Amino acid sequence: MRQCLVIGRPNVGKTLLCLRLAQACGLKWAFIMHELPDGAVRERVLTIRDAMATLVSAARYTTVGIQTVGVGMSSAIGQRLVLHDSTGLCEDSHDNALIRRGMARTLTLMVQSEQIVHVVDATTLDKGVLSPIDSLIMDVSKARDVPYTLVFNKSDAPGAMRKTELYRKSDRRTRPLVVSALRAQGIDDIQRVLIRTNVVN
Amino acid sequence: MDPIIDQLARGRLSVQSSLEQLRQAYRQDAPRSRSGLTRFGAPERGDSVLPASSPDAGIDPVAAKEILLRPLRDLIGLSEVKKVIDELYAYLAVQTLRRRMELKADGTVLHMIFAGRPGTGKTTVARLLGPIFATLGVLTQGQVVEVERADLVGEYVGHTAQKTRSQLDRAMGGVLFVDEAYALARGGDKDFGREAIDTLVKGMEDRSGNLIVILAGYENEMNYFLSLNPGLSSRFPVQISFPDFTERELLQIASRILEERQYRLSSDALSALRQSLRSERWGSDFGNGRTVRNVIERAIRRQALRVMGCAQPTRQDVMTLFAADFREGNDHAPMSGDWPSQRW
Q1: To which H or E segment does residue A45 belong?
Q2: Residue B173 above 50 pLDDT?
Q3: Any chain A CB within 8 A of the CB of B33?
Q4: Is the torsion defined by CA of B272, B254, B292, B324 positive or negative?
Q5: Which of A104, A161, B137, B336 is a plausible cystine mate for B9, CB 3.0–4.6 Å?
Q6: What is the pLDDT of residue A20?
Q7: How far is A69 from A85, CA to CA, in rounded Å?
Q8: CATH code of the domain containing A134
Q9: Is pLDDT at B35 greater than 80 in this prediction?
Q10: Which residue of A has its CA nearest to B27?
Q11: B292-298 long-range Cβ contacts below 8 angstroms, 24+ apart
Q12: What's the pLDDT at B150?
């Protein structure tokens, strides 16, 4: 079972994206392993709709610790994929030990996982440039030489498309996928990438 | 990788710098796995005993304090100076930590004035400060460039600025120590010294952050010098005064010099040394630590003359300084009382 890490800054929509992916794969139920920052593990099976209601919110740091969402890819592949939904990485919550440990765990997964999906809030792109943390995440992932996908979320928000265009002009090597997890647009693109990189042989 | 993540979990590293270090770790890993190069292929510097929080993060300024400040602590006397530098160190260490944790760290101006009579340790302290600042990351190189009036002031119009600027360039990334700085203002309005001061001030502003200028000189003359140019005083926020050594401290210095050179004092030589220092002390050209060294060196020369007169000098003869060696005029032969007793 391949481990795929969904990484990004807080409140970019990592959790919702994971659930949307599960939904796109035809799952009605999500098997969610909740790994709390203190190391305890809680397992829950929720319907996708319930999961979206309970796990997703507009506040920052809805996800503390790692939520692992098992996503059954289509059975034709024969290999399953586990999405690790991680704590957002950001600087200004440094005084909170729980979140800090969650972030440390995220970095551990970043070093270990076999695939990285990097989620960026398209509305926060400044003049078509990634924030320092985001560009570092990108650099580390590329340095690790594992399959890396850059995802621009929140494409439905005003200004997002214009900023995405600016980014595309400045960085021609990385081709970001543009999605809106809220409207469930563009999810199939990510799904296709995940299937392609996970095909055995 | 694990230590980096561990540091993040403990709140020692910011997210950004831990990601940065992870990236560097991968960069360095790559060539190693291919060509078998070690990660620390470069020759290590002598101060490798400094406790590093991780190979890439530089030293931990709190833990390294004892090691960094030890040479300064070992100096005799100068308790005021040590206190001021302790304060400075604490401040700089915290700023370094803050920078590492991605908090705002203000770049303070650290230009200093060392005021004190000659031989009170100004140059010695300045030489020690360079490496300390470099280790704390305030300066990039930490070299100490010692200059005086002749190095800064030129001979014709336009020469001065050029000379001063070249000295500033030499000191870039380190400390520029201007000895007897008041001499720059000595010659009056027409003197090129003024130009040197102006160039110096200009250069300090331009290069602030990676250059520390230390002006040294006698207390009274330095006060006069600062009063001449109203902008100067505010540009040198750290003013350290070096008091004269007390008699006790002078004797401690003497015994350290003797120890280093492997000489001993006979029982009465100590009082002779004290007397000799006391008489020097009232002289106008008393140079504190430097005078102590001169007094001892003179005694060593006299002892050498005396030993040459002996038929078969023993190890003890060659090592021992008598009271007579410290007195002006070598007029009496060593007597039994001059020999070292068991107590000394």
Answers
A1: strand A41-47
A2: yes
A3: no
A4: positive
A5: A104
A6: 85
A7: 7
A8: 3.40.50.300
A9: no
A10: A143
A11: B292/B250, B292/B253, B292/B254, B292/B257, B293/B257, B295/B254, B295/B326, B296/B254, B296/B257, B296/B258, B296/B261, B296/B263, B296/B321
A12: 85
Residues of A in contact with B6 (CB under 8 A): 104
Q: Is B1 on the interface with A (CB under 8 A)?
A: yes
- Identify the CA nearest to A88 among candidates A61, A52, A112: A61
Q: Report CA-CA distances (Å) from B29 to B2, B13, B26, B38, B304.
A: 14, 21, 5, 9, 62
Give the highest mean pLDDT range of B109-123, B187-201, B319-333.
B109-123
Can you state the percent helix, strand and coil of chain A, rounding each to 5?
Answer: 35, 25, 40
Least confident of A40-44, A162-166, B260-264: A40-44
Structure token digits, residue B292: 């102590």
Residue B51 pLDDT: 45
The domain in which residue A17 lies consists of: 2-196
Q: What is the pLDDT of residue B177?
A: 92
Is A132 among the domain residues? yes
Residue A201 lies in a domain: no
| Mean pLDDT of the A12-38 span | 78
Beta-carbon count within 10 A of A95 CB:
8
Give the Cα separation of B203 and B223 in Å (integer): 22
Q: What is the pLDDT of residues B13-34, one digit of tens each?
A: 778 888 888 888 877 765 544 3
CB contact B101 to A (< 8 Å): yes
What is the amino acid identity at position A127?
K
Dihedrals φ, ψ of A92, to 5°? -85, 15
In chain B, what percentage of residues exceed pLDDT 70?
84
Q: Is residue A73 part of a domain?
A: yes
Is A96 within 8 Å of chain B by CB? Answer: no
* Confidence check: pLDDT of A65 > 80: no
Q: For residue range A154-166, what is the model confidence (pLDDT) as tens digits? A: 888 888 888 888 8
pLDDT given at position B42: 37
The residue assigned the tokens 């035809």 is A26
Q: What is the pLDDT of residue A60?
A: 63
Q: Which of B299, B263, B266, B264 is nearest to B280 (CA)?
A: B299
By Cβ distance, the residue of A100, A101, A132 closest to B16 is A132
Cα B128 to Cα A175, B45, B266, distances in angstroms: 54, 17, 34
Residue A172 lies in a domain: yes
Number of neighbouring beta carbons within 10 Å of residue B144 = 20
Domain count for chain A, please give it: 1
Which residue of chain A has the CA closest to B22?
A140
- Please report residues of B whose CB lies closer than 8 A to that of A108: 5
* Cα gap A19→A47, rounded to integer Å: 10
pLDDT at B313: 80
Radius of gyration of chain B (CA): 26
pLDDT at B151 (0 to 100)? 86
Nearest to B126 by CA among B219, B247, B217: B217
